Amino acid sequence: MPITTNDSLAPLRLLQLVSPSLPVGAFTYSQGLEWATECGWVADEQTLKRWIESLMESSMAYLELPVLARLYQAAATKDAEALTYWSHYLVASRETAELRLEERNRGRAMASLLPELGIPVSQENLPLFRQCQLAGFAQAAQHWQIPLKAAAAGYLWGWLESMTLAGVKIIPLGQTAGQRIIASLTLRVPEIVRIGLDVDDAQIGASCTAQAIASSLHETQYTRIYRS
User: Fold this and answer.
1) What is the DSSP letter of 61?
2) Transmembrane region positions (predicted)?
């Protein structure tokens, strides 16, 4: 069976979307991990792995991936109402001011980037993309014909890498320890994606109490290098 241009480009476009070099500022956020390390909740390779895995099983599986699926479908069908609803839903589900601000800051960066990559953004949808980075990610994935399952796996893996590298810097750990964490938790990615894409509307939502506490206290942390 011949490989079409879209077949060959979609995986490469996904790599671009989840690359740490994508200028949306992902590397500047720890999502509460900096304070969790400061207070001793996360102190070594094993506790960092447990912290990240817990968030994969809660926030990623029951909030971000299900919302990504709905934003992807809304982008495919040009359903402005659904796009608006799920963008607002995700921002409202962020449990602290820092996490909401992160979503909006990354959203503004993504909204500015999309036209530069040849991805159309209507004036009607531009305010949504500016407040919700995940909406812009979904728009790009759909435009580049990246299959939803692959887009969800890529998004999750990119988040996993970003969080692990933040932990490696903050604790600190060696790069090899970080790669062991990524290698181990990558095995969970297919399962988490399957769960996330099977979640019903009424099940969407996750409360991550430890992360919410850490993120709230990070706002007044005396010394910090991350924005959340």
Assistant:
1) I
2) none
Which domains are present in the chain? 5-15+26-218 (1.10.4190.10)
Q: Which residues of 129-167 are buried (b: 16+ CB within 10 A; e: fewer)?
A: bbbbbbbbbbbbbbbbebebeebbbbbbbbbbbbbbbbb
C-beta of residue 48 within 8 angstroms of C-beta of residue 42: yes
pTM: 0.93
Q: For 144-195, what is each residue's pLDDT tens digit?
A: 999 999 999 999 999 999 999 999 999 999 999 999 999 999 999 999 999 9
Give the span between the Cα atoms of 36 and 180, in whole angstroms: 21
Contact call for residues 46 and 178 (beta carbons, < 8 A): no
Helix axes 175-186, 148-170, angle to 10 degrees: 150
Which of 1, 2, 12, 55 lies closest to 145 in space, CA to CA? 12
